[in-house]
Amino acid sequence: MFRADVHQTFPPPGREQVRARGLGIREPLLQDPRRESLPRPRPRPQPAAPTPAGRLNLLRQHPQVVARKVPVAETRALEEWIGRETKLGNATLAAEVKHGNHGLEPVKRWSDAVNAAIEDIVQGVPPFPLVRECLERINRQADAICISQTPAEALKREWAEHRLDRCVKMIAGQEMGTKAEHLKFAAAGKYAVNKILMIGDAPGDYHAARNIGALFYPVNPGSEEQSWARLFNEALDRFFGGAYAGDYEAQLVKQFDACLPEHPHWK
Questions:
Q1: For the stretch 44-72, what's the b/e string if a residue is b when 16 or more beta carbons lie within 10 angstroms of its beta carbon?
Q2: Which pLDDT band, with edges at 50, 70 and 90, does 29 fall under?
Q3: Is the separation of the CB atoms in 26 and 156 below 8 Å?
Q4: Separation of alpha carbons 229 and 76, rounded Å
Q5: The domain 2-47+127-258 belongs to what CATH superfamily?
Q6: For the segment 108-163, what is each residue's pLDDT rounded down to a tens digit?
Q7: Per-residue b/e over 206-221, b at no fewer than 16 CB within 10 Å?
């Protein structure tokens, strides 16, 4: 069904293609199909982000948690499920609990509570400065979609609240698959790989882009405003001008990598 939706939504190659993320809201993608695909040096791959279970295991080791004897939730059922489930999300979690996996019941309660809290709290929170201007420019020159592992209902609500939904052709949440699947269905084989730009703020975004050979623009954690300013003032010109791939992208990915240490500072 997703393939059919994409075929109907995306025009044939002839515009560029952009994917949006890290807006202060969630997730954009870019393309300039007028140029031929060229080989380019690959930036160093980013380490995969810890799973939720991995984060809890790190929390269990934190000196302050150890010193205060704070109990941390057991993660064996969660780790086992993550290890075999290929479509992680609210729907598959609910189905797993419904079919008798009682070990995941606390996880589902927590997930439901987080979604409810986000719906209650995340209102009137504008995107980072220049996000709107970036998306408006992207929309004039490219085919843009929003892809995320956030539930689609929350994505659509937040993007619509700030009238950013008009800047993208599709908003795809976790219900439509992983980010790598979103990119594959929407762009792979439809645009030259050096004409696709993934804008993201996490290692998973980088890996999703590299999965189809696309370019990556990082929104650096802790420096989001500077990252969007650089995209608006510099990186979009390079992308649309065919001067993004290579040393320029590699330098940006190197800076991104430095923002994401492999080990916490306290270990």
A1: eebeeeeeebeebebeeeeeeeeeeeeee
A2: low
A3: no
A4: 42
A5: HAD superfamily/HAD-like (3.40.50.1000)
A6: 998 899 888 887 887 788 899 999 999 999 999 999 999 998 888 888 998 999 99
A7: bbbbbbbebbbbbbbe
Residue whose token pair is 């295991």: 57
The strand ranges marked E within 164-251 are 170-172, 196-200, 215-218
Tell me where in the chain the CATH 3.40.50.1000 domain(s) lie.
2-47+127-258
- pTM score of the predicted model: 0.73
pLDDT (mean) for 86-104? 90
Looking up tokens 């079919």 gives 99
Query: Whole-angstrom Cα distance, residue 50 to residue 74?
Result: 16
Report the mean per-residue pLDDT for the chain.
81
Q: Please, what's the largest Cα pairwise distance for the chain?
A: 60
- The pairs formed by 81-88 with CB atoms below 8 angstroms and a separation of 24 or more are 82/51, 82/52, 82/53, 87/177, 87/178, 88/149, 88/174
Q: Is the pLDDT of residue 4 over 50?
A: no
132's CB contacts (< 8 A; 6+ apart) are 162, 164, 167
Q: Which helix (H) or strand (E) holds 145?
A: strand 142-147
- Arithmetic mean of pLDDT, 184-193: 88
Q: In what order do the strands lie in the sheet with 16-20?
A: 170-172, 142-147, 16-20, 196-200, 215-218
